[in-house]
Amino acid sequence: MVLSEPYWDHHIPLPKLGPLHSRLVTAFVALICFINSYNGDFVFDDSEAIINNKDLNPDTPLSNIWKNDFWGSNLSSNSSHKSYRPLTVLTFRINYLLAGGLHPIGFHVLNVALHCVISVLMIDVFAILIGSLVHDGRGVKLNLSPKASFLAALFFAAHPVHTESVAGIVGRADLLCALFFQLSFLVYCKAFQGGDKKFPVLWIFSSILLCAVAMLCKEQGITVLVSENMLSLFLPKDLWTDFYFLFSTQIGGLVSSGLLMRLALLFLGGSFLLYARWRIMGTGPPSFTEVDNPASFAENVILRIVNYNYYYSLNAWLLLCPWWLCFDWSMGCVPLIKSATDWRIVWPLLLWCCLMGLVYQALCSQDSNKRRTLTFGLVLLVIPFLPASNLFFRVGFVIAERVLYLSSAGYCLILAYTVGYCSCHWKKHKVCAATLTLLCVNVARSAQRSQHWRSEQSLFTSALSVCPLNAKVHYNVGKNLADRGNQSAAVKYYREAVRLHPKYVHAMNNLGNILKERNELEEAEELLSSAVHIQPDFAAAWMNLGIVQNSLKKFDKAEQSYWNAIRFRKKYPDCYYNLGRLESEGFFLNALKINPNVASCHGNLAVLYHRWGKLDLAKRHYELSLRLDPNAPGTKENYNMLKRKLEQRQRTVG
Q1: DSSP per residue over 40-102, as a string?
Q2: Looking at CB atoms within 10 Å, which of 49, 111, 257, 411 has the fewest?
């Protein structure tokens, strides 16, 4: 049965371009949306996945990328995130080699290029889903929906929710996964070229192989096989009439049609890939904390279900209105729904009403083209999102815009159909104006959002208005300010982070460090003591606590804190150094008690205080040393350096 061209395609308010021109326009739109991120910095998660990831270094054995997770930790480690994406890491390593180091421009350029390619390939994917697989006499695939597939691809190219995946280098995993998802899907569709009864097994195996490649870029790639199962059921025939007929015939008819063989091969291939992925994880699934995904830790099953569905509604809202975008949605950004009187419970109810309405139209509409388009739109919207849904396992986030990269394609397909439907029933010039306005707004928003992702300062501060209750947002703003030398401003954001999340040990540690340098030692000790009480294995906080206690002359406690830090982190040279300095100070002070007129003891003690930032004590002991021995080697030079530093500090204060 040959399907006719969807009637609503003609009414879409776009010019009918040739295949080449439509692809060039789509690539251009994708480019202008995110091109301003090409010379941005490494931001947010890029620090762990790229800057601190030793697997990118050419001196590290290449085989390590097959043993470690995405962040460079060994998969067998209990602390591993279990995100096995060796092919994505390999592309990072190639970027490193080509650039001769960690230069972000090459990383960003490749991300933007990948998004352009994916957006162009979406034309082919949408053409198949809307208009089925139809070939001419020479076997060339025909696009029965040139305008609809072009419009859906434009919506996809310009959607602002893609900014995290494109402008954030870590989003490379989503881009590569989407690319091989598309290739697997298109290769599978090649198998229908010879008709339903001449189904080359080679195409199925090629599709499964490309699915495996997609999984090695990101775990979400496995969902392409589920989409292909739906394709096997509905694509070669009219959506429901022939489907019912097919299952009302004898089993022999199913076998001869090739349907059972296709489904069996896809099922076996998917099962093997899932089994291999589970074996690779080693010690089991990763462990996450309550702050990462609070709904999954709710004791009441009903509360978990309600909050999961609220998360789904928020993801849907990001697709519909991608204005409130944030680099992180954890740590109180989305408070839990704990009562039936919480007004937010309306949103999941509204979401399911909309989904049920779409499902009803997909099942019961008299228009076969409408049924086809809505069915595949829903499949592409829902299936790629399932790994992030908390249905099968706990995920380590509340909302992550990057996981919507593939799912947004289903939304764009449904949106393109909506435009076509409205063009048939409303005034065409109004629909045209609304469509162009939506595209222009999305392009402008994508460009603005990718500008935010150019630096950590702009990225973190942009989140303050979106997630003011997110402690991690305030922490990152404070950390960025502190790294740029503005410690006074950083204190404000660290305090707010601790207020919002009283057990935020990293914020306590960083705030304690700043207070230590400002000589506010009592509060610093209180904060750091709280941090190690909440997280006893926090080695850095133990060491910083030891430094503060040393400054407060609590030498025994300081020594114990240093040993605790070393106990939890065996290879900790800074802590060994501080422990050595602590013992050295005690040695020199005891020596001076016995004989206060030893110039070398005063000089060495002055050097210790100089390094610790206790400049007044350093000045005093330098002067005592020079008074006792004006020719003491090195003491005069160190004393002059100290005086210049004191003068500089005085000018800054003045």
Answers
A1: ----TTHIIIIIT-GGGSTTS-GGGGGTB-TTS-BTTSTT------HHHHHHHHHHHHHHTS-
A2: 257
Cβ proximity of 324 and 343 under 8 Å: no
pLDDT at 112 over 60: yes
**Region 458-475 average pLDDT:** 93
Q: What are phi and psi of 166, to 5 degrees?
A: -90, -50
**DSSP letters spanning 577-621:** HHHHHHHHHHHHHHHHHH-TT-HHHHHHHHHHHHHHT-HHHHHHH
Distance CA 283, CA 245 (A): 47
DSSP type of residue 238:
-
Asked if 416 contacts 12 with a C-beta cutoff of 8 angstroms, the reply is yes
Mean pLDDT (whole number) for 527-534 = 95
Q: Which percentage of the chain shows pLDDT scores above 70?
A: 91
Q: What is the DSSP letter of 239?
A: T
Closest C-alpha to 130, from 314, 371, 462: 371
Residue 642 tokens read as: 């100290």
Residue 576: both structure tokens together: 């060994």
Q: Please give the single-letter amino acid code of residue 468.
A: P
Q: What are phi and psi of 639, to 5 degrees?
A: -65, -40
Cβ pair 218, 176 in contact under 8 A:
yes
Render pLDDT for 34-47 as a digit per residue (tens, 0 to 9): 999 999 999 999 98
381 CB contacts (<8 Å, ≥6 apart)? 407, 409, 410, 411, 414
And the tokens for 143? 């696009």
Q: Where are the beta strands (DSSP E) in 438-531?
A: none
Burial of 397 (0-12, 13-18, 19+ CB in 10 A): middle
Give the DSSP letter of residue 141. E
Q: Would you report the helix, strand and coil content of the chain in percent, each value rounded to 5?
A: 70, 0, 25
Residues contacting 328, CB < 8 A, separation 6+: 44, 463, 467, 470, 472, 473, 476
- DSSP code of 518? T
Q: Which helix (H) or strand (E) holds 177?
A: helix 172-190
What is the C-alpha separation between 641 and 654, in angstroms, rounded? 20
Q: Higher model confidence: residue 239 or residue 600?
A: 600
Count other C-beta atoms under 10 Å from residue 340's C-beta: 8
Instruction: Characterize the bridge pairing of strands 141-142 and 134-135.
Output: antiparallel
Which residues on adjacent β-strands are paired with residue 68?
74
Question: Tokens at residue 422, please?
Answer: 């409205």
| Phi, psi (deg, nearest 5) at residue 538 | -80, 90
Q: What is the model's pLDDT at position 3?
A: 46
pLDDT (average), residues 632-648: 84
Please say whether the beta carbons of 315 and 385 come within 8 A: yes
